[in-house]
Design goal:
Layout lengths: L9 H7 L14 H5 L13 E7 L5 E7 L1 H4 L4 E5 L23 E2 L5 E7 L2 H9 L2 E6 L6 H4 L30 E4 L2 H6 L3 E9 L11 E7 L2 E6 L4 H12 L6 E4 L14 H12 L5 E4 L2 H4 L7 E10 L5 E11 L27 E8 L14 H19 L3 H8 L6 E2 L14 E3 L4 H12 L1 H4 L8 E3 L2 E12 L10 E6 L5 E5 L8 H13 L6 E4 L18 H28 L6 E4 L2 E4 L2 E7 H8 L4 E5 L14 E2 L2 E12 L5 E13 L4 H21 L4 E2 L4 E2 L17 E8 L26 H12 L5 E2 L3 H10 L4
Parallel strand pairs: 1-12, 8-33, 10-11, 14-15, 17-27, 21-22, 29-32
Antiparallel strand pairs: 1-5, 2-4, 2-6, 3-5, 7-15, 8-13, 9-10, 9-12, 13-14, 16-17, 18-19, 19-28, 20-21, 20-26, 23-24, 24-25, 28-29, 30-31
Helix pairs in contact: 10-18, 14-15, 17-18
């Protein structure tokens, strides 16, 4: 894997020299603990009881009878839980369908039948063998389109369409699954050329190194939970509601998380662990899911996709339509499927005057879907970028020229007209910065497009049965600036002038703690070692209901952090002005002291000021109570970002094996706070794109109802030897009109998800190498071989 120098604009290079902390590559704060094995994950902690679970052998069944007497009598067994023992109330999930903790109605292979807490794992496993169960087996359905038919087996009383679910709270309600503008039918009538196609993009496991784990204990009515979760505050909220106790009586601790990628929010296993602990007299009880259990716990949804595009002969796109059927499994929600086209990701890539995007989130008898890195964008990009390539070929037009002709630019209104469906979800506003064309040219240069692209369906190189070609894909993305009304950040300036950040953000390996400390150090002009952060403990931190999801932590929490620093500076200035004999607006707070703006010699250390005032100031920031879901970055402007990926692949025409040779990923981080972290995000996202494109396939035996690859020896995540050369293009550009603490923090944009979407770039490269369009993913050797033979290509 080779990583090359990122592209910086001259403007960004000049701005970089003004910063003392930002723009450097600094190791994450926890690196030393983790490398030396000193970081304590939940599984490393001592527990009194261990949990094991009996899963359903059937994809769809009712428990007719269950006998746990023999299991309960075993020495060392402290609690046995079945559907009969749980409260008859729904858990208030958002990224999971609201459900009972356990149910007699079983909806997938592995659904919870019985759970045991015992003094050892061996005792718990033996106890499960003694549980006797009688099932009534029901017909099952596994295809999202089939599940919508009137005669399909009903997984829920109201049917299989998530949108029909009843009694949902505001955060779990299903918006009409449509985003549209203009008149798409009229747009197709105006087109000279129309292309339509359908695709089937398979699911993908999150495959975090650490499995899901939860430990719980009760003490005098207080519940303490240690869990590997991306959303500690939200978990605390729904636990408190479920157990009907005050929020202050629930503490969630989650200091170290071994990877999440969207797969570690909240789940029934956390509530079951708490119930078992309560049954066992409050003893510390831990449930660590096995790798096999995690591989059938949650995954990216499957998408059956339909796309159509129309254009004039000159390449102007007149209409674009997309319809997707998302398999969210037994317990998913719309937020783990289409997401209601969250943040406009994937739907405003092209400035067509007419567009319609429609989604159906559908329950099946597979295990549930969970939002995974890039969420809906890999699906929209796969369908849309495939038909864009097909359209370019039919128009006999360079696909790069077609994209650039229709790509929005900085300052343009997107969408071009008001939304006709769900206009309250997203503002129709101008793009603040959108350097798509600049990024495209840089990516093309690094993949050597001019030399290697020979035309659609034409390889650049052939040797025996092997052919090489390049492919391209582009997509518009959100940048995570959202829901600031659900987040609070506090900054305390300590007696010695150092700073402590209190935040509900969640560190999951992406380096957010380090990044926030760097922002604070820059804003306060302190050395980085003078800034510390408190997170991962809901009792001592600020609240953050969003936390580690949707790429929001850098942009939104960073913005609130800088606002909190402005707040604390104002409080310091008020006291310092009296001591320095100057007006408040003349006081400057920086470097652990205050001085008068026009007379730096008139200065006083913060330590001396605080001693005189007997006061330790605290700054607080949160969004307005009725703040928008996606606030504008400045009046009339919204932040989005282009993503571009180019791929070179080699296809063996005899075996169908695809070998990636080189990937170039283009991203727009705005201002890179920590270059090393940005690089790491880019490389990790590309790796997951490759896995989704070529190898990661969840295999299910439809005859025997068994998942066949439930560990990393069979579930094929990318290995080190699989990885090609990976190059990156980072466009650094910020809006100089915005102060650092207004809108995006110093212009920085969330980029954690912005390279995990590009499987379609591989598909387009395969087409150019073979002349055969890939319409399913993953594009394993078997899939490609079958497609070649079906088209008669050898």
């Amino acid at each position: 894997m080779v990583e090359k120098q990122q592209q910086l604009t001259e403007k960004a290079k000049s701005a970089e020299r003004q910063f003392k902390t930002l723009g450097k590559s600094i190791p994450i704060m926890e690196a030393n603990q983790k490398v030396r094995g000193r970081a304590k994950y939940v599984e490393d902690m001592e527990t009194e009881l261990f949990v094991k679970m009996l899963g359903s052998p059937h994809p769809h069944a009712i428990i007719k009878n269950i006998d746990t007497n023999d299991a309960e009598k075993m020495n060392g067994v402290k609690a046995v839980l079945t559907y009969r023992d749980v409260p008859k109330k729904l858990i208030g999930f958002d990224m999971h369908r609201m459900s009972l903790a356990m149910d007699k109605h079983l909806r997938y292979v592995g659904d919870y039948v019985a759970v045991v807490a015992a003094r050892s794992e061996a005792i718990a496993e033996e106890a499960l063998k003694r549980v006797k169960v009688e099932y009534e087996v029901l017909p099952a359905v596994f295809d999202p389109e089939e599940a919508l038919k009137p005669d399909a087996p009903r997984i829920y009383e109201e049917g299989n369409f998530y949108g029909a679910a009843k009694g949902l709270p505001a955060w779990a309600k299903y918006p009409e699954g449509i985003q549209a503008w203009g008149d798409v039918e009229q747009g197709f009538k105006e087109a000279d050329m129309i292309v339509g196609d359908n695709f089937d993009v398979g699911p993908q496991n999150h495959a975090a190194l650490e499995t899901h784990v939860c430990m719980a204990g009760w003490n005098e009515g207080e519940l303490k939970v240690w869990s590997s979760t991306q959303t500690p505050t939200f978990l605390k909220m729904i636990l408190a509601k479920y157990f009907e106790i005050a929020h202050g009586k629930v503490v969630v601790l989650s200091e170290h998380v071994g990877g999440g990628f969207g797969g570690k929010y909240t789940g029934r296993y956390q509530f079951i662990t708490c119930l078992l602990s309560r049954m066992a007299g409050g003893k510390k009880t831990r449930w660590t899911l096995t790798r096999e259990e995690v591989c059938t716990y949650a995954r990216r949804p499957r998408g059956k996709l339909y796309a159509k595009i129309g254009a004039k002969l000159n390449g102007t796109i007149t209409a674009l339509s997309f319809k997707g059927y998302f398999d969210i499994g037994a317990y998913g929600s719309f937020q783990t499927g289409s997401t209601g086209f969250h943040g406009e990701g994937g739907i405003i890539s092209y400035k067509t005057p007419n567009a319609r995007f429609e989604a159906f989130d559908v329950h099946t008898n597979h295990f549930r879907s969970e939002a995974m890195r890039s969420v809906q964008m890999p699906f929209l990009a796969f369908a849309i970028e495939s038909v864009v390539e097909e359209l370019a070929e039919k128009l006999e037009m360079d696909p790069v020229v077609l994209r650039l002709k229709n790509m929005p630019k900085t300052g343009e209104m997107m969408p071009p007209t008001e939304y006709t469906h769900n206009p309250h979800m997203y503002p129709t506003a101008r793009l603040d910065l959108y350097p798509g064309e600049q990024m495209m040219q840089a990516v093309l240069k690094k993949i050597n497009w001019k030399e290697k692209w020979k035309g659609p369906g034409k390889p650049a190189w052939t040797e025996g049965p092997k052919r090489r070609a390049v492919g391209l894909a582009y997509c518009a993305s959100y940048c995570g600036f959202m829901m600031h009304n659900l987040i609070c950040v506090t900054v305390q300036i300590n007696f010695d002038g150092s700073a402590t950040i209190f935040t509900g953000t969640q560190e999951i390996g992406q380096g957010i703690n380090t990044t926030l400390c760097m922002l604070a150090a820059e804003a306060l002009e302190l050395p980085l070692e003078a800034v510390s952060i408190v997170s991962g403990n809901t009792r001592t931190t600020a609240y953050d209901i969003v936390a580690a999801r949707q790429s929001n932590q850098l942009s939104t929490n960073g913005y609130l952090l800088l606002e909190a620093i402005e707040d604390v500076k104002l409080k310091i200035k008020t006291g310092a002005a009296r001591l320095l004999g100057a007006a408040q607006e003349e006081i400057v707070v920086s470097g652990g002291k205050c001085h008068v703006k026009e007379n730096p010699g008139r200065a006083m250390s913060l330590k001396k000021i605080f001693k005189s005032l007997s006061y330790i100031p605290v700054g607080i920031a949160s969004g307005p109570p009725l703040g928008g879901r996606h606030p504008e970055v400045k009046p009339g402007f919204k932040p989005k970002q282009p993503m571009i990926m180019a791929a070179e692949v080699e296809v063996d025409m005899e075996t169908g094996a695809v070998t990636p040779i080189k990937i170039v990923s283009g991203m727009f981080p705005g201002k890179m706070v920590n270059k090393g972290i940005v690089r790491g995000q880019a490389l990790g996202g590309v790796t997951q794109s490759l896995g989704m494109a070529l190898w990661e396939e969840i295999k299910f035996d439809m005859e025997n109802f068994r998942y066949l690859n439930t560990d990393f020896s069979e579930y094929r995540i990318p290995r080190a030897l699989d990885m090609p050369e990976i190059d990156t293009v980072f466009i650094e550009e910020v809006d100089d009109e915005n102060p650092a603490h207004k809108g995006l923090p110093y212009g920085a944009r969330g980029i954690g998800e912005m390279t995990a979407w590009g499987a379609v770039a591989i598909a387009n490269a395969i087409y150019n190498a073979t002349g055969v369009r890939m319409r399913t993913s993953p594009m394993t050797a078997e899939t490609v071989w079958n497609a070649l033979r079906k088209e008669g290509v050898r």
